[in-house]
Amino acid sequence: MELFRDKLKHCRHIKGWTQEQLARNIGVSWNTVQRWESGKTSPSPLAMEKLQDLLKDVLEREQLKLL
């Protein structure tokens, strides 16, 4: 699991969240999360910071880094 999009999707699934739920938790649209997970775009530095904070427990448990 090397790609950001795969790690993001993996973390989201472990949390049991839909793309819409993740988007709401960090203040973006679900389309934005969909574009990240499809590899079409990357999160802004602010969005990445929010993702890291929101998914911290999963990232630590799975020994992953988003970037």
Write a structural description.
The chain has helices spanning 4-15, 19-26, 30-38, 45-54, 56-62. By secondary structure, the protein is mainly α. It has one domain: 434 Repressor (Amino-terminal Domain) (Orthogonal Bundle), CATH 1.10.260.40. Helix 2 crosses helix 3. The longest helix has 12 residues, at 4-15.
Class computed from helices, strands and strand pairing? mainly alpha
Average pLDDT, rounded to a whole number, is 95
Poorly predicted residue ranges:
none
Number of DSSP-assigned strands: 0
Envelope shape:
globular
Corresponding CATH architecture: Orthogonal Bundle
Beginning-to-end CA distance, first to last residue: 12 Å
Radius of gyration: 11 Å
Largest sheet: none
Give the helix level as a range of percent. 55-70%
Supply the number of structural domains: 1
